Queue: 3 jobs
Job 1
Amino acid sequence: MTDAWPTLAERFAKDVREAARARLTDLETALTDRQVKEVERVNATLSQLEESLQRLLAEPSRAFVQLSLDELQQVEQDQIERDVEAIRARLDSLPGERRRDVAEVERRYAGLRELVFPFAVAVCVPEGWEEN
């Protein structure tokens, strides 16, 4: 048995390397799929927000209903203008936010490393067995 160990050790090591490569391939596929889905979710969420904001700006009279109270009229009008400007600013910031969010997702999934842990082999030999 001891004479055969160098050959057996190389076979064991080869099997471990092959299993590690197969596992790495499986993980790469799974993580790539997960990354694609996460980028799609980011894009869908920001697209939905963009559409909502554009609808608000397209029909401001429906979105910003103002009651006609004489003493509050100017204050309310000023608030509506601030709200519209805030919506425009938020709409203008969406492309940059989309780029940052997608880059962050890509960064999280980058740099996959193969790690192979050491292993041990126990050889059990029955009592009275002799090597031929």
Job 2
Amino acid sequence: MALPIRLGTGAAVVATGAIALISTAMQDDHPISDPLTALAIYAALWWLGIVRPAVWLSPGELVVRNPLRTHRIARDNVVSARARSRGVAIIRRDGRRCTAVGLWKPRIAQERAASLITNWAQTPPSSNQGEAPESSYPETQESPTRRRVVDILAAAGLAVALTIPALLLAWPHNPQWLWAVAGLIVVIAIVPFGITRQAKDALRRDH
């Protein structure tokens, strides 16, 4: 997953947890431990579904880290890769199945990641030093500082957009117009994230 998604959803989980605990503590008929189970589930889903899945290429092996298991596949055991509905399927010579859940992306991104893995597997190690599928798309040169700022803004926007509904639910007595204002804030907050993803997708399609 992209860095803004990891940071934004992580911040949203933390903020939502704080809101839930404060809201519960303000109620006399509910112990503060009530939301802990749900918070633990959200944190586990965030870690297993967003943070942990990843894929690396090295000169000698392909590492696929899925939510519950890590696969280390020797280069000579990789035949090719194909885009699938749940990620990118790695075709191995020994016939064993492996799907890279960390590459669960829009179809065009999956196909290009699969193409990179296939080219890596079919290219002699001496002429390919290994690249990460996450950075497999030709991109224009961008200042690291600018990229960091854009990622932070996108993550902050996503975090705000995901946290506002929890805030409104924790404050049950509110005027109806507040939901419309909150919806507008969500749209404004998520714009940096949307612009970031749109720009990257457009760049990938152009190449």
Job 3
Amino acid sequence: MLVLECIVGSIWNLLLFITIILTVVWCYYRKKKEKTYAKGILLLIILILLAIWFIGPCVYERHIAEMKKTELEEKQREIEGEKYFKELEEDMKKVHEETQEDLAKRKVQEDESKQNEKANASSTPIYNFKEDKDCSDFSNASEASKFMKESKAAGFGDHRLDANGDGIACN
């Protein structure tokens, strides 16, 4: 392919190639007529050497240029690949940081919810509704009323704390 580009690339190379073809045809016809064609062979050798002399450097230069182009393309691909990997690493770092932030937020939320549960649990006493309670087990009537309402809601009855049925315990 490079040789053909070099032959067609210069008018002198093209004329030299046409001369070689004509010399080959001339030698063929001389041989067919059984005439001597030694001068044609000598001319053909000289023309071929001239063609090598003119076309050789052209082929060499084009080959080197093509190799450099290939090397440049290869370097460009390497640079693009490195750039892609850097972007990928940055994206991975961002995702990792976001994940760590999310985990930290969840942990804070869980800690807050546990603290809220503890605060709620400590503000409301936990009663065992299976035990029978009397008015003497409570410090005041409002505590007894609260116990009675929660006991009813849990399905354990009023523990006979509301003797007169007015909804207020121990009165």
